[in-house]
Input
Amino acid sequence: MQGYDPSAFPPFAVTVDLAVFTVRAMRLHVLLVERGQDPHRGRWALPGGFLLPHEAAEQAARRELAEETGLSCDTTEGLHLEQLRTYSDPDRDPRMRVVSVAFTALLPDLPEPRGGGDAARARWTPRDEASPLAFDHDRILADAHERIGAKLEYTCLATAFCPAAFTLGELRQVYETVWGVALDRPNFRRKVLATPGFVEPVAGGPRRTGARGKPAALYTAGPARSLHPPLLRPEGRPR
Amino acid sequence: MQGYDPSAFPPFAVTVDLAVFTVRAMRLHVLLVERGQDPHRGRWALPGGFLLPHEAAEQAARRELAEETGLSCDTTEGLHLEQLRTYSDPDRDPRMRVVSVAFTALLPDLPEPRGGGDAARARWTPRDEASPLAFDHDRILADAHERIGAKLEYTCLATAFCPAAFTLGELRQVYETVWGVALDRPNFRRKVLATPGFVEPVAGGPRRTGARGKPAALYTAGPARSLHPPLLRPEGRPR
DNA sequence: ACTTTTATAGTCACACTGACTTTTAAGGGG
DNA sequence: CCCCTTAAAAGTCAGTGTGACTATAAAAGT
Output
């Protein structure tokens, strides 16, 4: 029905929702906001909001993220946003038809965000303590978690969780935290270093003080974007 | 901006677009319709159309596919539709803001479709002769082709291109056609048969007549949905 | 001094892969 | 009817990546 009489098409509200993850204290955390308006006022939800008439979805996602969490422009501008999928169940919003385009993003551990816009508050929440969320955001969060877990296998995305310089132990913890499994240290090291362009050694003496064990060498993210061969998650070996 | 005054949100038109592929005569084909209305009247485009007020995107995709191409209900009901991504560039439609949710589907070779609804005509077109299409459909088609190519690597999706019973040679042609590379016959056979649940042998004597060479055994799609280990496409070996 | 923790190095058997050869069974042409 | 072509099916073999494991090194805590 691609007729174009402007009055002939059913109007929809279009929103964006963001599942923004970080690894903090060995646990996967997700960025949540407390809703300041009905419906679901006072409940926690993924950050997001309405598309403006001139915006593409990704622009709107960046804007809402900055508005609702006060993350700095430095953070949000360079941030890699990936479209997850679109949720269009007619009943997903109790008041009206809202079609929502969901995005996923990964950040290194950052200071606590602040609320703003329509968000009363914002905070990092451990992923397994996030439910129940408003609307169908539990479903979106589950899809996003599954997606980033899968992407770690065949992309270099894990470095997006790490600060500019990191140790292989920190990188390994990203995988262990997202997948919820324990990985063999020497084998992980071998695979990462065998993939050209995944990580590159950085000068600067080994490791900041305060940690235990032998000092580790520091690395930065390399230019590679994909992993050949992939780093597959083990099947059934819980941590 | 999650305010809920019904007059406070910008209204958008929401459409679905479908990239439906098949393998016919050793070439990848895509289902196209000729537009019967402006804009782009007379040009070829992916089938699709407006979401109705009560519909989820996937329902709308099924309905539009049936309306515009006359494919039988048997075909469209059981069809596996996969959401590709959502296109929301403000300029993607010359008349107004249209946000489109794109889907991908795979079919075995079928009779020629007919037009219907807003489609003047419908036909299977070789994928490399499809451009230029209306709107941003060249981009959607490219994304869809890339996606199905990637999915063949780690899912059992290839059997969706095949009839109920097929030979390993036919299955291999699916991979070769979508990827545009030549695969080693013995190695392909070994990998497919080594993956439990990918294909299952079927009784009925070998191969229908009319083909040359030694008769091949027939198989049907097995219960497996994913491929472990994956069947990776070779890097730089054009057919 | 000793234990704990983590990084780093190295070993080994096994599975999978790509490249290749050989054999079998059909059709087509002279 | 023989031979050639085509494609399926079966097998070989060397190289590579992997999981499981052991050993050594260098820090912090007790």
